[in-house]
UniProtKB/TrEMBL annotation:
<keyword id="KW-0012">Acyltransferase</keyword>
<dbReference type="InterPro" id="IPR045304">
    <property type="entry name" value="LbH_SAT"/>
</dbReference>
<dbReference type="InterPro" id="IPR011004">
    <property type="entry name" value="Trimer_LpxA-like_sf"/>
</dbReference>
<comment type="similarity">
    <text>Belongs to the transferase hexapeptide repeat family.</text>
</comment>
<dbReference type="Pfam" id="PF00132">
    <property type="entry name" value="Hexapep"/>
</dbReference>
<keyword id="KW-0677">Repeat</keyword>
<dbReference type="InterPro" id="IPR001451">
    <property type="entry name" value="Hexapep"/>
</dbReference>
<keyword id="KW-0808">Transferase</keyword>
<dbReference type="GO" id="GO:0016746">
    <property type="term" value="F:acyltransferase activity"/>
</dbReference>
<dbReference type="InterPro" id="IPR018357">
    <property type="entry name" value="Hexapep_transf_CS"/>
</dbReference>
<protein>
    <submittedName>
        <fullName>Transferase hexapeptide (Six repeat-containing protein)</fullName>
    </submittedName>
</protein>
Length: 195
């Protein structure tokens, strides 16, 4: 490594140690995000200690780094660029999101929901928002929901638990638990308990 790279690497390690001690050790939600990211990605680091998991996720998954800085309300932190490039993604602070949040390439994503449950996975181009610019008309999304690319979820609707939403879907009506939906407008393709 060149001297500048060594300095940057040493600074990153020091910064990660400080971030870990300040935000990760006692935060079960952030720990769930880390574990979900590594498990879904199939990383062998998922079996290591939580500090090693955190370091790995921050260094190798810039989409996780984005989630981490959002969780700690530090998206404006001047050091975040050591871990991620500028990511055009907006998660509204008013959205309550349980642990296990995981994204693949969160580009062109806007999430403004009333609440989102555990283990929410999403891909690029997601729009979750209000209807008629009325923030009382926001979606509620359950646990273990996986959303494909370029999906739109709008209005005061409820999406149940264990739902998979296919790419390009437009969801404007309530969705029951345990199903796969797709289309414009989205409709149930299959119930999860069907063979």
């Amino acid at each position: 490594m060149k001297p500048n790279q060594l300095l940057t690497h040493a600074f990153k390690k020091l910064l990660l140690w400080r971030l870990y001690n300040r935000y990760v050790i006692a935060n079960a939600v952030i720990q769930a995000d880390i574990k979900q990211t590594l498990q879904v990605r199939g990383s062998q680091v998922q079996y290591a200690t939580i500090d090693k998991q955190f370091y790995h996720a921050m260094i190798y998954y810039q989409d996780y780094a984005y989630i981490f800085f959002w969780r700690i309300n530090k998206l404006g932190c001047r050091w975040r660029y050591l871990f991620m490039n500028d990511m055009p993604c907006k998660l509204f602070r008013s959205t309550e999101i349980a642990g296990g949040l995981m994204c693949y390439h969160p580009f062109a994503t806007v999430i403004n929901a009333k609440s989102i449950g555990r283990n929410f996975q999403f891909r690029n181009g997601l729009t979750v928002g209000n209807k008629g610019n009325d923030n009382s008309q926001l979606p509620i999304i359950g646990n273990d929901v996986s959303v494909g690319a370029n999906v739109v979820i709008i209005g005061a609707i409820t999406i149940g638990d264990n739902v998979t939403i296919g790419a390009g879907s437009v969801v404007v009506k309530n969705v029951p638990s345990n199903c796969i939906i797709a289309g414009n407008p989205a409709h149930i393709i299959r119930r999860q308990d069907e063979a």
